[in-house]
Amino acid sequence: MPRNQPQSGRQYYILVASLILMIIAALLPFSPTVAGSAPVATEVSAPGATSATDLGGVSYLFARRDDGGVWVRKTDGLWYSGWSPLGGVTDAPPAAAGSGEFINVFARGTDGALWVNRTTDGRTYEGWRALGDRLASAPAAVGSRGRVHVFTRDDQGMIWTRTSNDGRSFSAPVSLGGPLAAAPVGVAEGSGLVLHGQGVNGHLYTLAARDGAGGAGWATWRPRGGLAQPIPTLDEALIPPLTLDVGINFISANNWQNYQLPAYGRLRPGLAKFSMFYDGYPTVPAFGTGEIDDAIAAGARTIIFRTAETRIAPDEVERQLHAPLPGDGRSLLDYIRDRGNDGSGVAFWIEVGNEPDLAGVSPLVARYSLLATIRDLGPQYRASHPNFRWMASLPTRNGLRESAVPEYRGIAYLDTLLSDQGDGLGSVGARYDALGVHIYGADTLEQSFPALHAPSDLYDCTGSNGDALCPNTVLDRTLSRTDRPIFITEAGIDSPMSWELKARYYVEAMHRMPARVRGFALFTLSLDPEWYAGAGERCTKQAGSNCSRYALDVDEWGTVDAGFAGASAIGRCYQRSPFTLARDATPADGSCWPPCRRDASTPPARRPRNAVQRATCEIDASAPRPPMPAESATAGRAMLPPASNTSGRGNRRKGKIE
């Protein structure tokens, strides 16, 4: 190329040559990575995946070859050099970015760390050196305004960035939140710097730098299409953070239009779970197509249908899937098929069973029924209904407390249910697409505070006190025993806190869920007397009949939350993202932050991405609560449904402290 070629013509030729090179690379056969294969720097042995950047009017292509090494090739648009090795070994494609004065090449080393190389002339490179960050996938890089930005994804899916003005010294890593399912793509768009990525929920998200292309400050992850999730407007005050889909576990259709649906909308929900069947009437659906349509219209993109509690044998589940729904008479299978054809992008799940230990079923019987059902029905309906997946409901940490068999008691029940017994059925964790876990807490969803309970209560999470004092026991064990996605299909806090305070603990728990947790269903909004809460003289039930405040439809006085305070408070704080999703989280909004923060001790293994141990909390259990407003009690009594509407549903005991 003549040196006096106009710059615009040079850029034109570079663009054309780059397109030609991309076409040639696409036509070349792809060979899988084979450790130790010998590199050959020839024109026809181009690596499969490349990253390109410019320096001094020359384009540089960086790639990983079959031997794991990073190689480089350059072109000015007319001529191309051969591939040359830069040394090092990586198991993922490299990323490169330039500032106009230098080029940085980034790669994930075999140790999982981020490594960087640098050149200022395109001929000599300074050598690889480690920056220390741990990567779960390939890095991404962008050059903008004289800076280089490198983006990495950790093993929890969280995104981090470093910047450099000279390619040698880099800033400390800064968290950009997450989680993402894969490495992001960074682009300098006009005067702005933008990241694009796929969340673990399948939705597409973008993140823009607040100061344009400078990248010194970042806004909030915003959904962009994906599975048809609504996109908030730019001036909307509440932007959904990139965490997980939140919704409600609906247990009946009582008060649907006048209470449940309006309260549900306050959450800006992304999920709805319908407890469709109960053991008392296992083929009579509790919800119709109208309620399901309403939930989807309100924002749900994940719909979970639960079977009857113990009617989970293949023939029983088959009958439930074919039972006609109130409304237009379609079956669940027909409804799911029609929704799959309408382009709405809604994902449907069937959760098989419900808390088998509390239903009195042995773990071996529950295991066999779950595995027989997925063996007999799974392949057929996975093929005919691509938007339909299978979830197994797991037990609580109680197990069968009175059983003489050690493997049936406590957390050993879960281990037995998840085990492979060598009978050819495999394991529940391997056969099902996801697992459903319930978490209930006495005071929060992470720990309980002894000051609020009798001295005889156990707090070491090894006794038989139920879930209330050890909310994450089943979740933690499931994370350690399986690699499947997890849905929190029921969650509740049994506490007399006001919703202004209780909502903060709910939201904190949501943000601290592991990246493998895909959804979070709060319990519940039906105003069902079976779970109508209360305490002492305000409890509407007889003494000893398990009065509680787990439900989202109950206020701090044990009466109906007629003003939707619970759903509104959780929706407001969750959407505002009360803290940055970083290892050293700090509150961004004090009104959404729990008062009892944390201890600096190390998080348990395999626990949430930002898990921390709480410090002792200064809560005065004897402090009087404000008096119950008379209008609240009146409104609550007026909204209670007749007891006959709910007879036979459940009679379950949520983590009662006995």
From TrEMBL:
Assigned keywords, A-Z: Membrane, Transmembrane, Transmembrane helix
Region (Disordered): 586-658
Residue ranges of every copy of the PLL-like beta propeller domain listed in the record: 61-234
Superkingdom classification of source: Bacteria
Keyword Nucleotide-binding: no
InterPro entries: GH, PLL-like_beta-prop
Pfam families: DUF8189
TM helices/strands, residue ranges: 12-30
Gene3D superfamilies: Fucose-specific lectin, Glycosidases
DNA-binding found in the keyword field: no
SUPFAM superfamilies the UniProt entry points to: (Trans)glycosidases, Fucose-specific lectin
Name this protein carries in UniProt: PLL-like beta propeller domain-containing protein
Organism encoding this protein: uncultured Thermomicrobiales bacterium
Taxonomic lineage from the root: Bacteria, Pseudomonadati, Thermomicrobiota, Thermomicrobia, Thermomicrobiales
